[in-house]
Amino acid sequence: MKFHLPYILLLASQVHGYVAPLNTQQSVSSTFLSAGAVQLTRFDRLKQKYKGVSNVIDDVSDLPFSYDDFEEAVQATEYSFNRNDIVKGTIVQYDSQGAIVDIGAKASAFLPPGEMSLIAVQGQTVESLLDLESEHSLMIISEEDENGQLLVSIKRIEYAKAWENVLAMQTNDDVFDAQVIAVNRGGAICLVEGLRAFLPGSHLTGQLPTEDLVGQTLKLKFLEVSTENNKIVVSNRRAVVEQQMKDLSRGDVIQGVVKALKPYGAFVEVGGMSGLLHISQISYDRIDDLEKVISPGMVVKCMIIDHDKVNGRIALSTKTLEYEPGVMLQDPQKVFERADDTAKEYHARMEAERRAREEQNKDIVISLVDDLDDDDEDGDDSDPLKEVSDSLDSILQS
């Protein structure tokens, strides 16, 4: 099949979208060159036609922020979030299983109910613990999941802060209040700064570790604090004794209960403290059988004659309350009834004896001074140690 040249040129023009003149050889060559050029797609042609107005900034020297500054700022920005990092977050939504928190990551973080507070209260809802749009410090406690979400915790931060407070309180040896939340065979469990502390039954004052103790607030002091073992042991007795010891002095008359008898005396409990009433301090008369004078459970009045405030121990006496020597063996109740009056008489007598001793000592000092003055008037100003000094010199020289 034969085709004429004009027909070929016509086909070429239809294929490439270009109509070329057919009257010269040069036009034919141009048509075929155009056929080899790269042609634009329909999208590119529309893009060129409707791309809009271009804003060309000729001078950027007056702008406060350059492209280089922007690139440096992007490089300096840290977007990574690692486990145990402390971040700020805002509660943006409640969830049936917790709360959604915006921490600035590529995906919102999740705060589980068990990580919302150190002190968990049964029946407490998420809405009562956290307000929407409220900001909190949170600790990241997981890696990103497949959706880029992190788990965060408020409880972990409160836990670390609580231990800091407990260690500071232990260092200062503070007396503090704590609530009993449970009891067991060995004692009770208290909440100290939100942490569980063990209160041994032997360190309770005036009561036993029964269910009646739950909900009560007690004064406590630390016995042991161990961060390595997460162990806190407290004492109610230490706190009570320390408070009472501040108000007690030698010579005070107190009331107590006899708890035990020993061959050397009786132990009397006074407001949680244990005082020793030695057998020699019960009466001016000799005691052959202690059980005939006092017995366990007996309420007695005693005078404090000594105390150890550090260890909470006191020494007691009923002998000083006897209005007549030996009456404690005959009628102890009469002694207790007149204890306050007898104590005043005792203190007055002790004060008189103290003044008498002071006067006696003053007379001794005055007589010594007079003797020294008499020696000076006699002109004897020799050094009494001179002879000793001469002897030492002679020994050393030899």
Describe what you observe in this structure:
There is one protein chain. It contains eleven helices and 15 strands. 34% of the residues lie in helices and 25% in strands. With 398 residues, the protein is an alpha+beta fold. Helix 1 (5-16) packs parallel to helix 2 (25-35). A hairpin with a 2-residue loop joins strand 12 (265-270) and strand 13 (273-278). The strands form three sheets. It has a five-stranded antiparallel β-sheet with strand order 3-2-1-4-5. The protein has a five-stranded antiparallel β-sheet with strand order 8-7-6-9-10. It has a five-stranded mixed β-barrel with strand order 11-12-13-15-14. Residues 1-35 have low confidence and may be disordered.
Name the features:
single chain; about 400 residues; OB fold (Dihydrolipoamide Acetyltransferase, E2P); five-stranded antiparallel beta sheet; 11 helices; disordered N terminus
Uncertain runs are: 1-35
- Strand arrangement, major sheet: 3-2-1-4-5
Query: Class by helix and strand content?
Result: alpha+beta
Using the coordinates above, name the CATH class of the domain at 249-345: Mainly Beta
Order of helices and strands: HHHHEEEHEEHEEEEEHEEEEEHHHH
| Estimated radius of gyration | 49 Å
Judging from the principal axes of the Cα atoms, what is the shape? elongated
CATH superfamily of the domain at 249-345: Nucleic acid-binding proteins
Largest sheet: 5 strands, antiparallel
| Helical content (DSSP H or I, runs of 4+) | 25-40%
